[in-house]
Amino acid sequence: MNSRIQHYIDLIIVLTQKEMKVRYKSSFLGYVWSILNPLAFAFIFFVIFKVVMRIQMENYTLFLITGLFPWQCFSNSVNISPGVFLGNASIIKKVSFPRNVTLLAVVLQDMIHFILAIPVIVFFMFIYQEQPSFSWFYGIPILLGVQLFMTYGIALAISSINLFFRDLERLTIIFTTFLFYVTPIIYPETMIPAKYRYLIDFNPVAPLMISWRNLFLEGTLRLELLAVSLAYGVAAYMAGYFIYKKLSWKFAEVL
Amino acid sequence: MKKPVIVLDNVSKSYPLYHHITGGIKNFLFNLPEALNSMRNNRFEALKDISFKVHKGETLGIIGRNGAGKSTLLGLIAGVLKPSNGKIIVNGRISPLLELGGGFHPELTGNENIILNGVLLGMSRVEVKSKMKEIVEFSELGDFIDQPIRVYSSGMLARLGFSVVSCLDPEILLIDEILAVGDLDFQKKCIDKMMGFKKSGVTMVFVSHSMPDVKRICDRVAWIENHTLKIIGDPENIVISYTSHYSV
């Protein structure tokens, strides 16, 4: 049993390394791309909402950056997920190994990039004369854990189902775009009109994304938000794993 | 007789034709009644009622026409497919020899791919690294080993793939007609290696269209025809009747 766990860990390491290497090799600017994308979006939203529409908020740039980086980490994995099992068809058809590891490696790879991007957030905080808080030391690992459950669960479900319904890929992009705009990332939750505000409780990623921003901007971790995001994360993981388990023995048949 | 390491007991495999749903959700919903009906009733029978045993150290050849069900059979033994009926028992570590470049990533170098492939096939990272030199030497790829494998020729890919598997210490080796691409030199080397495996007691299941190879390597041959096991037994006789059956 022990050697099986050891092999599982080896698989995760090797596949995550593969994802990292591929990312850096195929594009010379690997790391730059992973921070350029959220920064570019931050710039776009800044121009639209601060310059053109003149939203009344202080430090809107920092507000955007601290929300967009964690979101990018989540949405990258989810958007890639439909193609992951498909892309590994040649080994899934021949070798009996835990297939979910290929997906876990993709999610972990995006998280590593997110961690590597945190210095960029710190850099912008210094520009705006803010200080990183001591609470980051426990806050970041906790939220990363929750985000791992959430991302991996959703990705498992999408990647598995996409083998059977191949156009799920297109719906996934619509789904993440929709989710992006209904989650308070480019606007604070307090700006949502009071009569619609209860809807935010139904958005599984909202409490997580709000928690990230609170942690970065104020150094606080609100327990009730954390509890709700953890509950959503675990639920997403359980649902994803259940779907994967139900379908995985048919993977070699449909590929 | 030694104890059997692979046992197939009345194994059948059928699956629904998935094209209705792999065409996408939109397609599925627009043709709902037809799609549901076809999923329930139209099952493709890939294999019917196959029973045989492979003993430790034995080499079993599998021959048959394209689409007869040979690869499905290997998939069942490898454990990536579940039988719809019957039972399969496999005792030992299975190493499938992957199709050309399968499990490799084109952007990674030969070295990096060896580690990736070795771990996917069931080795630990430490094991692969300790055998790295041996694997590279066997492949005779020289300096190419540090190049991304997208620049490799198909023969070089075959070399890399076979080298990884051959240094694995396989217990059960599954080979799906991939030796045909290497040059003569390397093909000979592979056959020699397989003979070496035979001597050291590795069990092998070998799918091939090359009758000379089948005769040379295999102890027994299974002829799959029309999704069923037509005959299993002595290579010499079966190869002769197989060749005459199709050389009309």
List descriptors.
heterodimer, A: 255 residues, mainly alpha, B: 248 residues, alpha/beta, Rossmann fold, 6-stranded mixed sheet, 3-stranded antiparallel sheet, 10 helices
Describe what this molecule looks like in 3D.
The complex is a heterodimer of chains A (about 260) and B (about 250). With about 260 residues, chain A is mainly alpha-helical. Chain A is built from eleven helices and no strands. Chain A starts with a helix and ends with a helix. Chain B is α/β, with parallel strands linked by helices. Chain B has a single domain (about 55-245), classed as 3-Layer(aba) Sandwich (Rossmann fold). Chain B is about 40% helix and about 25% strand. Chain B has helices spanning about 20, 25-30, 30-40, 70-80, 110-120, 125-140, 155-165, 185-200, 210-215, 235-245; strands spanning about 5-15, 45-55, 60-65, 85-90, 95, 170-175, 205, 220-225, 230-235. In chain B, α8 (about 185-200) links the parallel β6 and β7. In chain B, α5 packs across α6 (about 125-140), α5 crosses α7 and α6 packs across α7 (about 155-165). In chain B, about 40% of the residues are buried.
Strands, helices and their partners?
The complex is a heterodimer of chains A (255) and B (248).
Chain A (H helix, E strand, L loop, with lengths): L1 H25 L3 H23 L7 H21 L1 H6 L1 H4 L7 H28 L8 H29 L3 H15 L23 H13 L4 H26 L2 H4 L1
Chain B lengths: L3 E13 L2 H4 L2 H6 L1 H10 L1 E13 L3 E5 L6 H9 L6 E6 L3 E4 L12 H11 L4 H15 L14 H13 L5 E5 L7 H16 L3 E5 L3 H7 L2 E6 L2 E6 L1 H12 L2
Parallel strand pairs in B: 3-7, 3-8, 5-6, 6-7
Antiparallel strand pairs in B: 1-2, 1-4, 8-9
The fraction of residues assigned to DSSP E strands of chain B is: 25-35%
Counted up, domains of chain B total: 1
**Count of DSSP-assigned helices of chain A:** 11
Mean pLDDT of chain B: 86
Which regions of chain A contain 5 or more consecutive residues with pLDDT less than 50? none
Could you tell me how far the N terminus lies from the C terminus of chain A, measured between alpha carbons in angstroms? Answer: 30 Å
C-alpha geometry of chain B: globular
In CATH's first tier, which class of chain B applies? Answer: Alpha Beta
Poorly predicted sequence stretches spanning 5 or more consecutive residues of chain B: none
Major sheet attributes of chain B: 6 strands, mixed
| Widest sheet, order of strands of chain B | 5-6-7-3-8-9
Succession of helices and strands of chain A:
HHHHHHHHHHH
Number of strands of chain A: 0
